[in-house]
Amino acid sequence: MIRSELIQKIADDNPHLYQRDVERIVNTVFDEITGAMSRGDRVELRGFGAFSVKKRDARVGRNPRTGETVNVDEKHVPFFKTGKLLRDRLNGKS
Predict the structure, then answer these.
(1) DSSP conformation class of 17
(2) What is the DSSP letter of 93?
(3) Looking at the predicted structure, is the pLDDT value of residue 3 above 70?
(4) Residue from 23, 24, 17 nearest 5 by CA
(5) CB neighbour class for 49 (10 Å; exposed up to 12, middle 13-18, buried from 19)
(6) Per DSSP, what are the bridge partners of residue 45?
(7) What is the dihedral of CA 64, 70, 73, 78, to 10 degrees?
(8) d(Cα 18, Cα 7) in Å, to the nearest integer?
(9) What is the structure's pLDDT at 91?
(10) Cα(60)–Cα(71) distance, rounded to whole angstroms?
(11) Which of 10, 43, 50, 60 has an alpha carbon within 20 to 30 A of 83's alpha carbon?
């Protein structure tokens, strides 16, 4: 599902809301999650999962095409851990 499909689904399920309001709500939720993660905070949505930021240390990598060694800088990457309820639903448990 992509963002526009999510917005359309919520708008269809809530006919009392305007599409532009639903779009603003969805964008605000995503902006808040992104903002919290950029500050290094953890975002937990009960029953769904938790978003966090993991640090990857600098290392020496290798270019697979040429075999040449390459320095890879330290970086921060998003990480998602599924919640128990989501894992159970994906595995067919009620």
Answers:
(1) S
(2) -
(3) yes
(4) 23
(5) middle
(6) 49
(7) 0
(8) 11
(9) 92
(10) 5
(11) 10
> Between the CA of residue 7 and those of 2, 3, 40, 47, what are the distances in Å?
9, 6, 27, 21
Predicted confidence at residue 93, as pLDDT, reads 80
The C-alpha atoms of residue 87 and residue 94 are separated, in whole angstroms, by 10
pLDDT-based confidence at residue 84 (cuts at 50, 70, 90): very high
Cα separation, 63 vs 48, in Å, equals: 37
Could you report the per-residue pLDDT of 16-74, keeping only the tens digit for each? 999 999 999 999 999 999 999 999 999 999 999 999 999 999 999 999 999 999 999 99
Which residue in this structure is represented by tokens 């240390």? Answer: 57
